[in-house]
Design a protein that fits this description.
Shape: globular
CATH topology of the largest domain: Nucleotidyltransferase, domain 5
Keywords: ATP-binding, Coenzyme A biosynthesis, Cytoplasm, Kinase, Nucleotide-binding, Potassium, Transferase
Structural class: alpha/beta
Cofactor: K(+); NH4(+)
Strand content: 25-35%
Order of helices and strands: EEEHEHEEEHEEEHHEHEH
CATH architecture of the largest domain: 2-Layer Sandwich
Organism: Rivihabitans pingtungensis
Largest sheet: 7 strands, mixed
Number of helices: 7
Distance between the termini: 17 Å
Number of domains: 2
Number of strands: 12
Main location: cytoplasm
Radius of gyration: 19 Å
Bound molecules: adenosine-5'-diphosphate, ligand PAZ, potassium ion
Function: Catalyzes the phosphorylation of pantothenate (Pan), the first step in CoA biosynthesis.
CATH class of the largest domain: Alpha Beta
CATH superfamily of the largest domain: ATPase, nucleotide binding domain
Length: about 240
């Protein structure tokens, strides 16, 4: 049994695969309470653990404490080249979750791709048809955008609104504006890829993927935990 784990800035996501690569369990937990991870590790007793993290060292230690005795987390980091993908981004600084999502997307189908991960931050990454990670953008995710408006203004606060094409209330204006700010980088990336060649396939992942897909005026595929698909493609030496 193998554990795959992605530690993001908001949540930890994991998957357990049996020896044949079949999925036995999948879960997610907020940083504050990793008991569901500990319970899955106790139940399935993985003898191997592969992970990627963009969270703190302290969270990494708490994750390690959930693993069965004698099992250590093998943290994976971006490389210049791996599983068919070549990295043109600053490999030393690139988030390991972004790299794993790119490897996951590359494993799905041939052709150019845009990989958008709507989590704490929104990352939008471009993968060429020959497997080159051309580059990508980082912007605040939905909650961070709403927080920043609440913190930086005297009168907005953090009301719950609904998405509207032409909002009439402050609450709807904030919600729609922040959501639109997540659509724009994805649409621009697609447009720029189209200027280079055939239209890319758009993959959406992350906690807000469904929300983004609902309002994105483009065809896209939602893939839950795409970074874990990338980890599954890594063969350990
Ligand atoms: N059950 C949930 N718990 C926390 N955030 C959620 C949940 N469902 C959706 N979300 C949204 O997903 C975002 C976090 O997505 P996620 O992919 O887990 O982030 P990260 O990879 O940065 O940890 C949150 O900012 C929130 O908007
Ligand atoms: C951009 C990120 C904060 C996204 O994190 P997430 O939203 O998945 O929690 C993370 O991938 C990160 O810390 N990246 C390092 C900088 C970079 O990718 O260039
Ligand atoms: K992200």
């Amino acid at each position: 049994m193998k554990l795959l784990l992605d530690a993001g800035n908001t949540r930890v996501k994991w998957r357990l695969l049996d020896a044949a690569g079949q999925r036995c369990a999948e879960g997610a937990a907020a940083h504050e309470d990793l008991s569901a991870l500990a319970a899955d590790c106790a139940r399935w007793a993985p003898e191997q653990a592969l992970g990627c993290t963009v969270a703190s060292e302290a969270l990494g230690s708490r994750i390690a404490a959930c693993l069965p005795p004698g099992v250590a987390m093998a943290w994976q980091w971006p490389q210049a080249q791996c599983a068919g993908v070549t990295c043109q981004y600053d490999t030393q600084r690139l988030g390991a979750d972004r790299w794993m999502a790119l490897l996951g997307a590359w494993g799905r189908a041939p052709g150019a791709k845009v990989v958008a991960a709507a989590g704490t931050a929104l990352t939008v990454d471009a993968l060429s048809a020959d497997g080159v990670f051309l580059g990508g953008t980082i912007a605040p995710g939905l909650q961070l955008m709403r927080d920043s408006l609440a913190q930086g203004t005297a009168r907005l606060g953090r009301p719950d609104g609904e998405y509207q094409d032409f909002p009439h209330t402050t609450a709807d204006a904030i919600y729609s504006g922040c959501l639109n700010a997540m659509l724009a980088p994805i649409m621009l990336c697609v447009q720029r890829m189209q200027a280079l060649g055939p239209a890319p396939t758009v993959y959406l992942t992350g906690g807000d993927a469904n929300l983004v897909a609902r309002h994105l005026p483009l065809d896209c595929q939602i893939v839950d935990n795409l970074a874990l698909d990338g980890l599954a493609r890594i063969t350990r030496p």
